[in-house]
Write a structure and sequence with these properties.
Layout lengths: L2 H17 L3 E5 L9 E10 L1 E10 H10 L9 H17 L5 E9 L8 E7 L2 E9 L2 E2 L2 H22 L6 E4 L7 H5 L17 E5 L2 E11 L2 E9 L2 H9 L3
Antiparallel strand pairs: 1-5, 2-3, 2-4, 3-6, 3-7, 5-6, 8-9, 9-10, 10-11
């Protein structure tokens, strides 16, 4: 299926849902009026790469938006085109798997490009469109190679982090105290924590718990005998917050 066909299929479904009615695209033998034509370029990557340019008649679009209560009756081209842009993003979300739209931008009307004329039908309303399909299929071998290369770069980048030194600390417990009690602390005072002496202590990296265990003595120093560890994903999140 060509990208243009996939876009028309998604547009029929998405716009029909947005307008709460049946939307059809039929081939037309005329183009939008040069006086009110506006163009938007849809850049796509994935199984297709390139751009689809959509030219529409703004006056016809405005009538449809008013009829569907998407916009008020007062003329406002900037408002209507912003609504149209959002609708195009919704169409992008409905495209076939393997295609991703990266941008939708207003642009000047291309010259000399091959146009495909269509007419959008919604109830008693119609809008002329001209579509320029410059999105070409990408060979699957290139896609696979691109994914493999990305994975290799990601793995290489992760390997570089393995020698980074990070600070880890033990948390024996905590307690909330009024400020006046903190200010009244003195030598010999005891602050009771919220953790029982038999409860495991936390090994903290950043602000994340990466392991728990019991306190032991190692050559006269405190140590931690690990009894449980966090999932690898949570460990990575704790490291990420340090950068």
């Amino acid at each position: 299926m060509a990208f243009l066909e996939s876009w028309l299929e998604a547009a029929s479904t998405v716009l029909g849902r947005a307008f709460a009615g049946n939307v059809r695209f039929l081939h037309a033998d005329q183009l939008p009026s040069p006086e009110s034509v506006v163009a938007m370029g849809i850049t796509v990557t994935g199984s297709f790469a390139g751009r689809l340019t959509v030219l529409i008649d703004w006056e016809s679009l405005s009538k449809i938006l008013v009829a569907t209560k998407k916009a008020g009756p007062e003329p406002d081209q900037e408002r209507d085109l912003e609504i149209w842009r959002k609708l195009l993003w919704q169409v992008a979300a409905g495209l076939s798997v393997g295609m991703t739209v990266t941008s939708i931008e207003s642009m000047t009307r291309p010259r000399g490009a091959a146009l495909a004329a269509y007419q959008l039908h919604f109830g008693d309303h119609a809008m002329l469109l001209a579509l320029i399909d410059e999105a070409q299929p990408v060979e699957m071998t290139k896609l696979v190679a691109s994914v493999d290369e990305t994975q290799k770069l990601s793995a290489k980048g992760f390997d570089l982090l393995l020698d980074v030194e990070i600070e880890a600390s033990l948390r024996f417990g905590s307690r909330e105290m009024p400020l006046h009690e903190v200010l009244e602390l003195g030598p010999g005072d005891v602050v009771e924590l919220d953790r029982h002496v038999a409860d495991p202590v936390d090994l903290i990296v950043g602000d994340k718990i990466v392991a728990r265990g019991e306190v032991v003595l190692v050559n006269g120093n405190f140590g931690l005998r690990v009894s449980e560890v966090a999932e690898p994903k949570k460990c990575l999140e704790s490291i990420r917050c340090l950068f």
